[in-house]
Task: structure prediction
Amino acid sequence: QVQLVESGGGLVQAGGSLRLSCAASGRFFSINHMAWYRQVPGNQRELVAGISEGGTTNSADSVAGRFTISRDNAKNTVYLQMNSLKTEDTAVYYCNAIIRMTKWEAAATYWGQGTQVTVSS
Result:
């Protein structure tokens, strides 16, 4: 079994900052790509930022310059530093990881349960 557990969400005023964490636990061979997505009611889940095993990053235009994704491979953890938060950033944020369970199996996608981020005006 693999578990992705997010933490760090909460309520913050516009202009403030939050740091999200997602730690993978369980038995697996390797973690490849990791990413943060977000979703609001009535909308599709959208990519916020992603990071490869080697550290190459990408992010949505709406958060570029404000959000920074990083990872600690030794801790099997991915982070999302969110600065200059806007009310439009309010959503449930989900951790995503592409994980290879064994040396002989293809990688598959796993999701965390989500953490609420609410930005007030």
About this structure: The radius of gyration is 14 Å. The mean pLDDT is 97. The longest strand covers residues 30-39.
